[in-house]
Design goal:
Blueprint: H1 3-11, H2 30-35, E1 43-46, E2 49-52, H3 54-64, H4 75-100, H5 114-135, H6 147-157, H7 165-169, H8 172-183, H9 185-188
Helix pairs in contact: 1-3, 1-6, 4-5, 4-6, 5-8
């Protein structure tokens, strides 16, 4: 199950069973395609109710388990959180895919050049500039820890593992936010082990 969903489950103290599937090296089974015909993870099965897509799962968990709240009551703050979640979902992956292309196993990456890889880094840096502005004077992206922080945490916390840690260090508000994320129990408890 993707990291952002596990963070939300831990924040809300929801017990769950994780079933791993490898869609990179094996074709999806017919049973999995019944859960998500587009053969993507995550998929949540909650007593027979099946929902796919991490953002839909996060919203579902928030509505079904409103304690600990990861969305505020205030309409404008809720809308701002949704905007940030969309920004991460819509604009981060393309840049990430460019940067990661030479680091992926053969057959999993698009064709790349040094220039496309560098453009991925530039786009990620520009995205971090946007987050820097959002974080000025704040502990979290939108006042209290929220789904916006949950959605972005996996993106920013992995950057030092892929030679982009200095992009965090260049931005004081982002760097402070990342330190707060790294100290949060839900993130510590679900974090990938360090590379060996």
């Amino acid at each position: 199950m993707p990291w952002r969903v596990r963070i939300a489950l831990h924040e809300k103290a929801i017990d769950y069973e994780m079933v791993e599937t490898n869609l990179y090296t094996a074709s999806p089974t017919a049973a999995f395609l019944e859960l998500n015909p587009f053969a993507q993870i995550p998929v949540l099965d909650d007593d027979g109710f099946v929902i796919a897509e991490s953002i839909a799962i996060l919203e579902y968990l928030e509505e079904k388990f409103p304690t600990l709240a990861l969305m505020p009551d205030d309409l404008e703050r809720r809308a701002t959180i949704r905007k940030l979640v969309c920004w991460g979902t819509d604009y981060w992956p393309a840049a990430w895919k460019k940067w990661m292309a030479p680091r992926l196993p053969a057959g999993l990456a698009d064709d790349w050049t040094d220039e496309t890889v560098q453009s991925g880094r530039t786009e990620i840096a520009a995205h971090l500039d946007v987050l820097e502005l959002e974080l000025v004077g704040r502990q979290w992206l939108v006042d209290d820890f929220s789904l916006a922080d949950v959605a972005y945490a996996p993106f920013v916390l992995v950057l030092p593992r892929v030679d982009l840690g200095e992009e965090i260090e260049k931005r004081g508000s982002v760097s402070d936010w990342v330190e707060r994320l790294e100290a949060r129990p839900s993130i510590i408890d679900t974090m990938m082990p360090p590379r060996g």
